[in-house]
């Protein structure tokens, strides 16, 4: 039995659909249907038709603005007011050579054949447009569901269309998309689909690092703890985050804030802490920093006298972080922020006095963003906020340098940076912000550091 669907779309989209249906049956397709049935707002509407060439010619005659950059894939973009657009595609079938994920596209004869190339059943549904009210934007249509997408949607299941292995061999990126949809919708992945993912992990090596990191970023921003957990359980970590395996087999003892958990479990807990502590201030950089903050622990782990130690793990984690971020083609803007923050995060725990924090601040080249990210990592590490450190960071960022290079021109060149550093540390630690007092302090440093050098 067919199911009638009534929906509302923007008026200009309704007019486009009405114009298309004057000459060719139109079908709304893709994720819009899934989100519509779930009650999730989605303005990204895609349309499929059988005779795309006839539709394109007609829309041109009606004065629509079209972009045909993806015409080789039988897709045109109809540009609408407000920088919005609707993709109109011809029914198509896709075949793959199993060397790349770019399909060979050919026309399909009907909407069922077109739907069969979709990745998951919940994305394979379509709506056959029956009537359009261009004054209200109301669309009346019939749901077409050849692969049981509605049933899976109601059951909360991610299931590949047809044979899961075939779908993933066609486009291995679909394995990561399955994880992302499971996280986004809080669905479970059906067993055959799940097993096919675990058995075809290496196929992901055919996908560019940029596309992989794009999918990782999306799922991390939705729910980072769950994303890391599913990447590990699915074995996709082997290609996407190879450091997760060693982290899973390296364990802490029961000292400090640890409870004998693995480094991986601790990292997932830290990611959850991060979301809890900073629900409204989470960024991709902060998630990546927390994810990577202990990634170097397996390489430095030592067990002595019944104690498990990770001496130098922050520095080792920073090295691994930079290697992985570069390998995954992350931009320099993220690398320059995440790597030094990871390197510094252990020092945050020890910088609980004003003078100790001043040393940390200066050693970080007074980079407010790096320091704040290092504080975020440390907070996620222990599950509580370091409010006083945050306040000091804000204060120090506003504290002007009252003693500069001009004031140490009489100091030997090799000592100038050291002298200026001591003055700055004194200024920040003491809260003295009067230039005359700082210059007197500077004179004392010169006598202590410079005089012995000149005498020798």
Structural account:
- This protein has 456 residues and is of the alpha+beta class.
- Helices cover 53% and strands 14% of the residues.
- It has 21 helices and 14 strands.
- It has helices at 11-21, 31-38, 52-61, 111-115, 149-155, 164-170, 173-185, 191-199, 209-233, 237-240, 244-248, 263-277, 284-292, 297-300, 313-327, 332-350, 354-363, 368-382, 387-398, 413-430, 435-455; strands at residues 3-8, 27-29, 46-49, 65-67, 75-80, 84-90, 92-95, 104-107, 126-133, 138-144, 157-158, 188-189, 302-304, 307-309.
- The strands form 4 sheets. The protein has an 8-stranded mixed beta sheet with strand order 1-10-9-2-3-6-5-4. A two-stranded antiparallel sheet has the order 7-8. Strands 11-12 form a two-stranded parallel sheet.
């Amino acid at each position: 039995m067919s199911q009638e669907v009534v929906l509302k779309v923007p008026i200009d989209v309704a007019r486009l659909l009405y114009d298309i249906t004057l000459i060719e049956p139109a079908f709304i397709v893709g994720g819009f249907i899934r989100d519509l049935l779930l009650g999730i707002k989605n303005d990204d509407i895609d349309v499929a038709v059988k005779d795309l060439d006839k539709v394109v010619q007609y829309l041109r005659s009606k004065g629509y603005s079209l972009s045909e950059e993806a015409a080789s894939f039988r897709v045109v973009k109809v540009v609408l007011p407000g920088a919005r657009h609707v993709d109109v595609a011809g029914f198509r079938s896709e075949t793959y050579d199993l060397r790349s994920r770019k399909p060979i596209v050919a026309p399909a004869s009907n909407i069922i054949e077109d739907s069969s190339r979709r990745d998951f059943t919940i994305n394979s549904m379509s709506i056959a447009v029956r009537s359009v009210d261009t004054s209200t934007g109301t669309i009346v249509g019939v749901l077409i569901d050849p692969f049981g997408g509605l049933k899976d949607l109601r059951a909360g299941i991610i299931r590949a269309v047809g044979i899961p292995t075939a779908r993933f061999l066609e486009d291995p990126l679909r394995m990561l998309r399955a994880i992302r949809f499971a996280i986004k919708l809080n669905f479970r992945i059906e067993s055959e689909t799940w097993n096919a993912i675990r058995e075809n992990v290496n196929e992901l090596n055919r996908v560019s690092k940029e596309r992989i990191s794009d999918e990782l970023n999306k799922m991390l921003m939705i729910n980072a703890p769950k994303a890391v957990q599913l990447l590990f359980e699915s074995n996709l970590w082997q290609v996407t985050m190879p450091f997760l395996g060693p982290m899973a087999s390296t364990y802490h003892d029961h000292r400090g804030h640890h409870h004998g958990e693995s480094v991986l479990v601790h990292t997932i807990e830290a990611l959850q802490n991060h979301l809890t502590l900073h629900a409204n201030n989470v960024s991709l950089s902060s998630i990546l920093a927390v994810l990577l903050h202990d990634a170097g622990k397996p390489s430095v782990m030592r067990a002595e006298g019944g104690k498990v130690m990770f001496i130098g793990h922050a520095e080792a984690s920073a090295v691994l972080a930079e290697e992985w971020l570069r390998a995954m083609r992350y931009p320099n803007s993220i690398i320059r922020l995440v790597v030094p923050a990871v390197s510094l995060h252990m020092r945050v725990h020890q910088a609980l006095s004003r003078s100790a924090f001043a040393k940390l601040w200066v050693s970080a080249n007074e980079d407010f963003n790096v320091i704040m990210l290092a504080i975020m990592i440390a907070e996620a590490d222990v599950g509580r906020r370091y409010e006083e450190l945050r306040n000091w960071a804000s204060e120090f960022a506003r504290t002007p340098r009252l003693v500069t290079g001009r004031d140490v021109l009489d100091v030997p060149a090799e000592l100038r940076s050291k002298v200026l550093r001591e003055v700055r540390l004194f200024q920040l630690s003491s809260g003295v912000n009067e230039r005359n007092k700082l210059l007197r302090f500077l004179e004392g440093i010169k006598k202590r550091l410079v005089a012995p050098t000149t005498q020798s």
